[in-house]
Amino acid sequence: MTDPAAVDLLDIDPAFGSDPYPAYAVLRARGPVHEIRGGGEERFWLVVGHDACREALTDPRLSRDWRRNGHLATGVDAPPATDGPGNAHMLLSDPPDHTRLRRLAARAFTPRRVAALAPRIQEVTDGLVRDMLAAEDRRADLVDALAYPLRITVICELLGIPDLDRDAFRQWSDEITAPTGAEASRAAQAAAVPYLDGLIAAKREAPGDDLLSDLIHTVDEGGERMSEDELLSMALLLLLAGHESTVNFICKGVRALFAHPEQFALLRGDLDGLVAGAVEEMLRYDAPVETAPPRVAVEPVEIGGRVVPAGAVVLIALADAGRDPARVASPDRFDIRRTAAGDRGHLAFGHGVHHCLGAPLARLEGRIVFRTLLDRCPTLAPDGAPGDRMSGLLVRGERKVPVRW
């Protein structure tokens, strides 16, 4: 029996770019693994369904180490500049390198540090919401007014980046995470790298009360510490990894509430009791990151009865995992009380060794933002259609979310 032919996602559903879930459901009904035909000669493999995604996320034969294994990839080009400075981080490594880097990062990025950020996140959120509500026309773009400035302020304070440099950091992170072009993206990283090098040198001489200073001086039980490039890479990863995803999380969560007014009313009626469950449901219903970062198969891998060949580039549909009816009852229903019944069927933060280290911070930000925004602005409503969209397989969401109150 021959394997099914490669499929074009737009052939399954021309609206895939704006709403991928119907196409994912079609694929899931056919099986958990599919070869996908992209533009030109591009080919990659897509994993759908909760159990298959969870299995793929933990399979050591699917490598994230593009520096060592990118030459094996067939069908798509390796990510650009993976061998340059700033790429020696956890997200581009496999065990045992990943194990060492994650252990060092976890020593500095502790639950206690995250919890200690709560008062400052609340303070920043209060100020942004206050400024937004001061608009005389009672209108704003939620991305520019709240989501982006909150994220960039929190991550810059976490890393100890001075106020005067944050506008430049936002421009660099915007261009690297949602590039307007390959050259512009490379130029942004080229500008960010020497800045971070200088910042690390300054904090080595005069440590502050920030995560980057702690990472510089963190030593594990075996006397290991991060190299200069690993420190630089970790700083860049912390800046970028949660940037677009956190903004997406806030904006997608608000749009889900707008699309389900009965759930919106329910949440407004009991913010303290329901906000934590609402955050989990937002993550499940429309995951901030569409697929996990691409992996390359270093040898043939069987998933769900189908063999993915060596050299295949594999994308794991985190968003679809939360919509799998084998895992979640009525998965297309948005229900903020779902987690109260123990239904936690999402992989929005991944699974296994690459599970997002920043997940507790993202959840904390979500609870504070939605609690504050809906308390201060109970009449929040959409103000027309959203603006430009990001519609890639890795990140999908709105660049603008116009609102009124």
Automatic annotation (TrEMBL):
<dbReference type="Pfam" id="PF00067">
    <property type="entry name" value="p450"/>
</dbReference>
<dbReference type="InterPro" id="IPR002397">
    <property type="entry name" value="Cyt_P450_B"/>
</dbReference>
<protein>
    <submittedName>
        <fullName>Cytochrome P450</fullName>
    </submittedName>
</protein>
<keyword id="KW-0408">Iron</keyword>
<dbReference type="InterPro" id="IPR017972">
    <property type="entry name" value="Cyt_P450_CS"/>
</dbReference>
<dbReference type="InterPro" id="IPR036396">
    <property type="entry name" value="Cyt_P450_sf"/>
</dbReference>
<dbReference type="InterPro" id="IPR001128">
    <property type="entry name" value="Cyt_P450"/>
</dbReference>
<comment type="similarity">
    <text>Belongs to the cytochrome P450 family.</text>
</comment>
<keyword id="KW-0560">Oxidoreductase</keyword>
<keyword id="KW-0503">Monooxygenase</keyword>
<keyword id="KW-0479">Metal-binding</keyword>
<keyword id="KW-0349">Heme</keyword>
